[in-house]
Write a structure and sequence with these properties.
Largest sheet: 10 strands, antiparallel
Distance between the termini: 20 Å
Structural class: alpha+beta
Helix content: 10-25%
Shape: elongated
Number of strands: 10
């Protein structure tokens, strides 16, 4: 299993079944019925406390952080929980969607809470970033979000960069298989597959696609193809995307036997 597939799997595990993570800002914003973007480039030279009066529906909390010339909210002091710099936002009224962009080095973490100032129930937590480019992550949840804590500093220099925090509301998620992926984009509607792995790139996730010869039906011809791949790491035959073809995949194959592949199939 490639590293980015594993990373997406870890992100999905960090999210409850009633939340969905986005790494594409345009798709995230398209899912919202209303949104507010705090464009940090408009506040260069200000601090987070100075920004708050200009933002309807949200107030910063935590240590006061400055917006530098690279239009990032930088925060080199003050910690939340673990020894990690952070910036927080309280929402009034509550929202159900939050996103932010992290710079390439620092990476980040989004923690969503039911109460103000990072209190109450931890609704969702996911890591992102640390790539060679600016990295966006947004989360939509059916729970009301009272506050968010953005932490960063994956390179452990006690400073971090965050760009353009955003928040809003979205219509309710529909997630028939409870894997944290909305039905509108889920490549297996009835087979939980939070990683959305699709090894043969046919738009059907591995978890609902055992039609290895692509003839439209899962049958003995596909079993013939599966057999020599047993105990291999061939991703096409790894139906549960755990990195190895084994008895767990045989069990899934059995559940898909004599069915057509596709989002409606279930193992």
């Amino acid at each position: 299993m490639k590293w980015y597939t594993y990373a997406l799997w870890l992100i999905a595990l960090a999210l409850p079944a009633n939340a969905q993570v986005f790494d594409d800002e345009s798709l995230f914003l398209a899912a919202l019925t209303n949104s507010t973007i705090i464009d940090t480039s408009n506040f260069i030279g200000n601090t987070t406390f100075g920004i708050s009066p200009a933002v309807a529906g949200a107030d910063f909390f935590g240590p006061d952080a400055e917006v530098r010339s690279d239009d990032l909210i930088l925060n080199g002091s003050g910690f939340h929980g673990l020894s990690t710099p952070h910036v927080g936002l309280n929402f009034s009224p509550a929202v159900n969607a939050v996103g932010v962009t992290s710079n390439p080095v620092d990476g980040g973490r989004i923690q969503l809470y039911s109460g103000p100032n990072g209190t109450g129930t931890l609704l969702s937590e996911t890591d992102f970033g640390g790539t060679n480019s600016f990295q966006f992550t947004g989360v939509i949840t059916t729970s009301d979000i009272g506050s968010v804590v953005f932490t960063c500093d994956f390179n452990q220099d006690l400073a971090c960069g965050l760009r353009d925090p955003m928040f809003g509301t979205a219509s309710a998620l529909v997630d028939s298989d409870g894997d944290g992926v909305d039905d509108s984009v889920d490549n297996c509607l009835l087979a939980p597959n939070p990683s959305q792995v699709d090894s043969d790139s046919d738009s059907f996730g591995n978890a609902c696609d055992a039609d290895f010869n692509n003839d439209g039906i899962t049958n003995f011809l596909d079993l013939v193809l599966l057999s020599p791949a047993f105990l291999s790491t061939d991703p096409v035959f790894d139906l549960n995307a755990d990195g190895v073809v084994n008895f767990l995949d045989i069990a899934l194959f059995s559940g898909l036997f004599l069915t057509a592949p596709g989002p409606g199939a279930t193992g």
